[in-house]
Amino acid sequence: MKSFLSLLIALVAMNIDLYAAEAGMPQLDPTYWASQAFWLILVFTILYIAVSKFYLPKIKDNLDNRENKIKEDLEDANKFKELSEAKLKEYEIILENAKKEVSKIHFESKNILDKDIQSKKNELEKELEKEISKAHKEILELKKNSISSIQNISENITSNIIENISGDKLNESSIKAAVEDISKKNIDKYL
Amino acid sequence: MASNPMQQFTVHRIGPEIKIAGIDLSFTNASLFMVISASIIILFLFLGSKEKKIIPDKIQLIAEMFYTFVAKMISDTAGSKAKPYFPFIFSLFMFVLFCNMVGMLPYSFTVTSHIIVTLIMALFIFIAVTIIGFIKHGFKYLSIFVPSGVPAVLLPLITIIEIISYLSRPVSLSVRLFANMMAGHTMLKVFGGFVVSLGILGGWLPLSFSVALTGLEILVAFLQAYVFAILTCIYLNDALNLHH
Predict the structure, then answer these.
(1) Which residues in chain A have their CB less than 8 angstroms from residue B90's CB?
(2) How many CA atoms lie within 13 A of A100 on its CB side?
(3) How far is C-alpha A14 from the geometric centre of its chain's CA atoms?
(4) Where are the domains of chain B?
(5) Based on the number of CB atoms within 10 Å of its own CB, is B228 exposed (0-12), middle (13-18) or buried (19 or more)?
(6) Nearest Cα to Cα of residue B86 among A59, A69, A38
(7) Cα(A59)–Cα(B11) distance, rounded to whole angstroms?
(8) DSSP B139
(9) What is the pLDDT of residue A14?
(10) Mean pLDDT score of chain B, rounded to an integer?
């Protein structure tokens, strides 16, 4: 930069030398110095007043407004974010409670159902037992009855067979005694 | 146009001669371009702050960028104490920048290529900064010439050097801007002259140089405005925040 500047100055100096005969540096001619100073001060003062009183406050206002707006918007966004997070939490709590309630209801209804099933089962079992004992009794009765009816039938068959074979009628009591005797011996085989 | 590359810097009267108390205060082409630059700045800022949009349009965005650029420059170099001087630094930066940029237009006049203009600005800054320093710190402001941590033997020498460097501030500040502007515009003019004198056959090389130089000069125009403003901030920082 320095060497470049010195080159520039050298070039300028050469040129100034070249045209030195025609004119030197017009900057060093004091004819219009006062005029330049006067107009510079006047123009710059007007510019300074205009800039400091009108335009800079406006631009500053504008920049501040924007900054405030951005800040407000960010604050709002944060607020909304917090709000939404709180809502999310609330929602999660509600969901949790609902889940708990569901499992509770599930458990309760299961219990009720179990109880119901148990009681129905018990009732059914009782009924079944009743039926079974009834059937048992009936069977026993039937057994008893069947024994006597079998004896009767066998007495009849016996008397019939004897009658057919011998042609004689045996008295009933002796047949009865014989059948009873045999049946007592063999009845356990069949019943 | 005259082929003299210094011709572009001549000041001539426009309109009637105005003389107040024997001093010639006539409206000149330099005055005209000061008025043009200031008008462009005011128009630009007017358009940039007219509509207060939350989402800015282009010109509003550019105006706000200038605002934040200068505001950041001041707060970075001179701290929060320099806030009251923000409008001045902003006006100064914009004025120098737009004078430099308007000067880049062909056939226009570069206000900042005149030593008297830059010297008045630099002297104003120098005097104002010195006054601010004395108001803020009283006679303790003189301690700016006595850096801390210097051996006692060297102290007189260092103090003298500090005083010279302090007093040369307006000179360096004004000459830097003036010389940069004048050198750049003279170079442009010289190369432009070469294009004409070498004609259609040989003129292409200086023409391409001229194009490149125009780009460089636009950069320099911005850079010098920035340097002028940031040096003002640094001087202001010395006056506001006494470090020694």
Answers:
(1) 51, 56
(2) 6
(3) 90
(4) 7-240
(5) buried
(6) A59
(7) 36
(8) G
(9) 55
(10) 86
- Mutation target to probe the B interface, by most B beta carbons within 10 A, among A3, A7, A8, A39 is A39
The tens digit of pLDDT for each residue in B172-229 reads 999 999 999 888 888 888 888 888 888 788 788 888 888 999 999 999 999 999 999 9
Residues in B touching A33 (Cβ below 8 Å): 116
As a three-state string, the secondary structure of A88-147 is HHHHHHHHHHHHHHHHHHHHHHHHHHHHHHHHHHHHHHHHHHHHHHHHHHHHHHHHHHHH
- Which H/E stretch holds residue B121? helix B115-137
Q: Would residue A97 count as lying in a domain?
A: yes
Helix (H, G, I), strand (E, B) or coil at B207: helix
B35 contacts A62? CB cut-off 8 A: no
Instruction: Say whether B91 and A22 touch across the interface (CB within 8 A).
Output: no
Residue B146 has which token pair?
A: 């006595």
pLDDT digits (tens, 9 = 90+) for A1-48: 556 556 555 555 555 444 443 457 777 777 788 888 888 999 999 999
Distance from CA of A103 to the nearest CA of B (A): 55
Q: How far apart are the first and last CA of chain B?
A: 55
The C-alpha of A91 sits at a distance from chain B's nearest C-alpha, in angstroms, of 37
Q: What is the pLDDT of residue A117?
A: 93
Q: In this complex, do B64 and A55 lie within 8 Å of one another by their Cβ atoms?
A: no
Task: List all residues 6 or more positions away from A14 whose beta carbon is below 8 Å from its beta carbon.
Answer: none
A24 in a structural domain: no
For residue A46, give the nearest of B137, B35, B134 by alpha carbon: B35
Tell me whether residues A36 and B10 touch, CB distance under 8 A. no
Phi-psi region of B79 (alpha: psi -120 to 50; beta: other; left: phi over 0): left
Within 8 A by CB and 6+ apart from B1, the residues are B7
> For residue B215, which phi and psi values (nearest 5 degrees)?
-60, -45
Range of the structural domain that residue A48 is part of: 33-190
Residue A14 to residue B194: CA distance in whole angstroms? 15
Q: What percent of chain B has pLDDT over 90?
A: 36
pTM value is: 0.71
| Domain count across chain A | 1
